[in-house]
Amino acid sequence: MSQLPITAFVPTLALRNKRFNLFHKRVLSGCTKVRMEEKDNSKQQHRIVQSNIFNQQVENFLRPIPEAVQQRMEKIAAELLLEPQDKLMDVGCGTGAMIPFLHKYVPLSQIFLCDCSEAMLEEAKKRFPECPAIYSDFLELEKEHGNWDKLLFNAVFGNFIDQKAVLGVAYNVLKENGKILVSHPMGRSFVRQLHDKDPQMVPHLLPNQQEWQQLLKGMNMSLEYYCDESQLYIARLSK
Ligand SMILES: C[S@@+](CC[C@H](N)C(=O)[O-])C[C@H]1O[C@@H](n2cnc3c(N)ncnc32)[C@H](O)[C@@H]1O
C-alpha cells in the first residue's frame, strides 16, 4: 500500500484538480505529497515555520521515551477506541512515536502518517515503511483525500495556527461517526510552557472544556471524553 503510486491513492483527484497535482520534484520515498499551496499567506508562513523548526528536531524525537511517558501514550492510544478495521491518520506524526502504541490495535497498513516536516516524515517512514505516508500540511487536505475512521493529534494541536480550521478539515476527511483524539502525554501546562517560550512554534494552548464548546460551535461534532490531569491531556470528539 505504501508504495502505490500517488494516482492509486487518489485516482480521480490527480486528474480532476490542478491544485492537487501531486507529482513533485523531490518525491519522499513512498510518500504521497499533497501540494502545500495556501491561499492564506499567514497559514503558509506558519507551515513553513513549523517545517523549518521540526526539520531540525529529528534527533530529539528519536531519544528514548521514559517509561512513565510511555504508559501515558498507552492510555492515549486506548482512548482512540480503535477497531481492527479502522483506517487511522496520525496527524503531525513526527518520527512516529505513537505508532507502536497504535499498532497494538490496527495493522500498520491502516495507519497513515501525515506531517509537513519532510525530515520528520522521512524518519517515520523509515521506521514504519508499511504505513502509508502523506507529506502535507493537514490544513491542505480535502474531502477527496480519503475518509478516515479516526484522527489522532498527539502533541500537535497547539502548533496549529487555526484550531477551528483544523476541526473543519478533520470533519471533512472523517467518516460518519468518526472520532478525533487531541492529546498530549505531558499535559496542558507543558503546552502552556512551550507556548510561553516560543509562541511561533506553539501559538495556542490546549482547549479546556469550555473552550471546546466554543470551538465546536456550529460544527456537527461533540466532545465525548475529556481528561485533564497534570501530565496527561485527552479530548475525544465524535462526528
Ligand atoms: C511536537 S511534534 C509531535 C510529533 C508526534 N505527534 C509525537 O507525538 O511525537 C509536532 C509535529 O507536527 C508537525 N506539524 C506541525 N504543524 C503541522 C501541520 N499543519 N500539518 C502537518 N503536520 C504538522 C510538525 O512538523 C511535527 O513533526
**In the CATH classification, which architecture applies?**
3-Layer(aba) Sandwich
CATH class group: Alpha Beta
Number of helices: 10
The small-molecule ligands in this entry are: S-adenosylmethionine
User: What distance lies between the first and last C-alpha atoms, to the nearest angstrom?
Assistant: 27 Å
| Count of spatially separate domains | 1
> What overall form do the CA principal axes indicate?
globular
CATH homologous superfamily grouping: Vaccinia Virus protein VP39
Number of strands: 8
* Secondary-structure class: alpha/beta
Largest sheet: 8 strands, mixed
Task: Specify the helix fraction band.
Answer: 25-40%
Q: Tell me the strand percentage band.
A: 15-25%
Reported by name, the CATH topology is: Rossmann fold
Instruction: Please give the oligomerization state of what you see.
Output: single chain
Spatial strand sequence of the major β-sheet: 1-4-3-2-5-6-8-7
* Average pLDDT over all residues: 88
Radius of gyration, in Å, reads: 17 Å
| Model regions low in confidence, pLDDT < 50 over at least 5 residues | 1-27
Tell me what you see in this structure.
The protein starts with 5 loop residues before the first helix and ends with a strand. It has a single domain, classed as Vaccinia Virus protein VP39 (Rossmann fold, 3-Layer(aba) Sandwich), CATH 3.40.50.150. An 8-stranded mixed beta sheet has the order 1-4-3-2-5-6-8-7, with helices on both faces. With about 240 residues, it is an alpha/beta fold. A hairpin with a 2-residue loop joins strand 7 and strand 8. Helices cover about 35% and strands about 20% of the residues. The chain binds S-adenosylmethionine. The site of S-adenosylmethionine (SAM) has 23 residues, from helix 3 and strand 3.
